[in-house]
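Project standup — Tuesday

K.O.: blocked on the structure for the chain from last sprint. Re-posting the sequence here as requested.
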Amino acid sequence: MLNQEIFDEITRANAFASYNGIRTCQTGDGTAEASLEIGPHSLNHYGVLHGGAFYTLADCAAGAACRTDGRKYVTLHGSMDFIRSAKVGHVTARAAVKHRGRTTCLVLVEISGPDGTVYASGHYTFFCTGQMPAHNSTAP
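H.V.: unblocked you, prediction finished:
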């Protein structure tokens, strides 16, 4: 797993996720979670969680799962299947690396509520851009 201090530094540097209220954590080698408390700022005009919020939440979890090997990654492709709407409460994206190659990483993600209701699932492909710095740095 990636050193917790470096992981926390990368998480703090992700202004987009922070602005949108997304919290990310590593849960093991090749696994991570991202969570979001649904609020008025994350709803679309129908009053349900915006599809972009689902996508961003899954992308954050998937990227964190990739980085557990200590390398840097960027998203190449992501696809989401929206299963049902969420209106209130808390949702969590759980990500697991399914294949890690020399330059790419495939991650599966599922977004669910605290009661186990599945709201969305997705597949993400990431490209490795190199090793993480050994010292403290804000470089993602």
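K.O.: great, moving the ticket to review. DSSP finds three helices and six strands in the chain. The mean pLDDT is 92.
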